[in-house]
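Note to self: keep these together.
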Amino acid sequence: MKLNTLFVAAICASTLLNSCVFKTAQENQLQYTHTSLVDGDAYVIIQHVNEVAIEGTKYAENAENAAESKDVAVKVKDFYTQFLPQLDSVSTEFDVILNPVPSTITPSVDTTGNAFLAQEHIDYVHRAQEEIAFVKLQLGRLTKNTNPTLQKFGKEQLAKAEELYTQIGGKAEAHAHH
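Structure:
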């Protein structure tokens, strides 16, 4: 009788301990709670940076048509072209569902005046600088995340974003190198 009781207790204990394995806990979390494997801060960063990158790519494609902003647009588009697939890989790895971004961009067709084109160029360059500054800020926050994979991704992309920012006319921060 004692042997049967010990046998049943051992089976119950092994089942209980097996359900507490980290990998099993992650799978159960995803299956039953529809959550991601990143903290809330990283989730929001990935979502917002994805939205900015998609919109930024669309604006860059439209700005490539104007001769004055073509150089900036090509650089921004190249950055986003290499950035988006890597962001998608990170979001897939951590089960972050990226929201589709609706297209709200209407290309400008008016080419009648040089003043208009000059203003449009200034507006695009300023917009691109603001977008990349936002991406830099978010990637900087991602480098401080507790997840080593996200830290590595943030550091790699932050260096590229900082380089692009200075190339398109953004001012480098004086205290950036600690």
